[in-house]
Design brief:
four-stranded antiparallel beta sheet, seven-stranded mixed beta sheet, about 550 residues
């Protein structure tokens, strides 16, 4: 687009009316801008580069003014500016070589459908501002509920559109979904009883006093998501009352240790409020033994929540859904559609096995969320929110079970291919094997491999740690340079592998959910990392010294 610096926009009632009016013709100014935006965005999405590296400080300068402009601007001028300073400097999450995070390419049909969603501007808090979007959202929640819990047809006939029940809730993401699940768990445990009106009315101190407990606790793997800490903070339990349990060598929670911890807490008068199973840890992509956790939750008579924000979509694969066996016994389940269901950001869900469960957080108001209405907001944490369910509905209908089966299977098998590639390479080490489509690895020169093996065999923990310190520095340097060069992107994290005596090591983290990522791209990523490592002469010298 061409900027017109000599023009000056003016504010008037007529010009303001124009920006609120649908363009009458395709060749109108707004019509042309819309077409140009679509072309420019398509060009950006088709580019294979992962990121254009520009110092963040330079970008911040462009967004430094805090003054709201006094005069209006022409839409065309604003679009030119935003294409240059926002779009061009955005992260290219759709790139097939962007394999470092859980954000992926989108099916192209969601772009025009997103315009429809935004244009209709429905507010899903109440039926008076959403109408048909409300039964559509209930249908989507029913589909995902059936995917997880697999109840019979008459169950859904009874509960799907029930005004006083809920099969689940849409949320902005997994964090709010997890908060909602634990909020329900707390309120159901500390419900009204006799003269006690319930925790939601009288608060946590009185609730604990009434029930005779010293405190409440939540048990979860050490790989549990950080959102759980936010949840207990908001619910008044305190972050110290999330009890993290060690994992085994496969990054799955040790159920025997969790059972022992539950017994210890009981002896101290502390009630286990909930057990959280993780179905797809964010760092290593592993799934807890959900069947065993369901058994333990039953023994303890506590709420069983499964955080399947990442891994839940695996249920769409007939071939691999057994990896999540036991999830159907959960009281509540979190799934993010904006992860492996290929929906735009902001489409989290929490599902309830029992449709009456969410009544523990039910709330009403006279002007909105009236009793007996079908307002979705009566059993959700968030109030005003957009109709993201429409985009989930679109993907479920257009891609279908058969399409998702192909996408999920390809992702998991691509991760296994990449793991094989890493293990066959003399200068890489697979740190955590992929259970889903996420894995971790690192660059380890052959001389360092030999030295590590020897130090581990001799039980020389000091030497093991010294070598790993050198490898950690090398991993950080390679990842940073690779990101800055922009051709490809992997993320990095820090984990405590059993092989290295639970000491923290820095690793590359790769998520292979993008269907556009090819085997050749994966080979190129490793080749690029080898080249970058060879350029780190100083760090390699330090590492060699640690190995001697």
């Amino acid at each position: 687009m061409t900027q017109h610096h000599s023009r000056k926009a003016t504010a008037s009632e007529a010009t303001l009316m124009r920006i609120f009016t649908v363009p009458e013709a395709a060749d109108s100014t707004l019509g042309r801008i819309e077409q140009q935006l679509s072309r420019d965005l398509a060009g950006f999405l088709n580019d294979s580069i992962a990121a254009l590296e520009k110092p963040l400080s330079d970008i911040e300068e462009h967004f430094a003014s805090v003054q709201i402009p006094k005069a209006p601007r022409f839409v065309s001028d604003y679009v030119d500016d935003i294409m240059a300073h926002l779009v061009a400097q955005s992260v290219h999450t759709a790139s097939p070589s962007f394999i470092g995070h859980m954000t992926s390419a989108l099916p192209y049909f969601v772009l025009p459908l997103s315009k429809l969603m935004v244009g209709l501007n429905q507010n899903l808090v109440k039926i008076e501002t959403s109408k048909a979007f409300t039964p559509l959202e209930r249908q989507v929640l029913g589909m995902i509920h059936h995917l997880i819990f697999g109840r019979e047809a008459d169950f859904y006939e009874q509960w799907l559109h029930s005004a006083n029940h809920s099969l689940g809730a849409f949320c902005s993401g997994g964090t709010v979904a997890n908060i909602t699940a634990l909020w329900i768990a707390r309120n159901n445990l500390l419900k009204a009883d006799g003269n006690f009106r319930g925790v939601s009315r009288e608060g946590l101190p009185r609730a604990l006093k009434h029930y005779g407990w010293q405190d409440l606790a939540i048990l979860v793997s050490e790989r549990g998501h950080y959102s759980l800490g936010k949840a207990v903070d908001l619910l008044g339990l305190g972050r110290d009352n999330i009890i993290t349990i060690a994992t085994d060598a496969d990054n799955k929670v040790d159920v025997a240790k969790m059972r022992a911890e539950a017994a210890r807490l009981k002896a101290e008068g502390i009630r286990v409020m909930a057990i959280v199973g993780v179905a797809g840890t964010t760092e290593t992509g592993n799934v807890d033994p959900l069947e065993q956790l369901a058994d333990l939750a039953k023994e303890l008579d506590c709420h069983f929540h499964v955080d399947a924000a990442w891994g839940g979509a695996t249920l769409l694969s007939a071939k691999y859904r057994s990896l999540l066996k036991g999830i159907e016994r959960a009281d509540s389940v979190t799934i993010d559609a904006h992860k492996q269901m290929y929906v735009p950001m902001g489409a989290g869900m929490v599902l309830f096995r029992n449709p009456a469960l969410a009544s523990a957080i039910e709330h009403h108001a006279e002007y909105i969320l009236r009793r007996g209405s079908k307002d979705l907001g009566s059993q959700t944490l968030e109030g005003s929110r957009p109709g993201m369910a429409m985009l989930v509905h679109a993907c479920l209908q257009i891609i279908g079970r058969e399409g998702y089966e192909i996408l999920i299977n390809n992702s998991l098998e691509k991760a296994r291919y990449f793991a094989d590639l890493i293990e066959a390479h003399p200068e890489f080490e697979l740190v955590s094997a992929p259970e889903l489509c996420l894995l971790t690895y690192r660059y380890v020169p052959s001389f360092a491999k030999a030295a590590l093996d020897q130090a581990l065999a001799e039980g020389d923990s000091g030497r093991v740690n010294a070598i790993n310190d050198g490898l950690n520095a090398l991993t950080r340097a390679i990842q940073k340079t690779q990101r800055e060069q922009g051709k490809s992107f992997v993320s990095r994290t820090r984990i405590q592998p059993a092989r290295y005596l639970r000491e923290t090591v820095t690793v590359f983290r790769v998520v292979l959910a993008n269907p556009l990522t090819t085997e050749q791209i994966l080979q190129d990523v490793l080749a690029e990392q080898c080249e970058l490592a060879a350029g780190e002469t100083s760090l390699l010298a330090d590492l060699r010294a640690a190995c001697e």
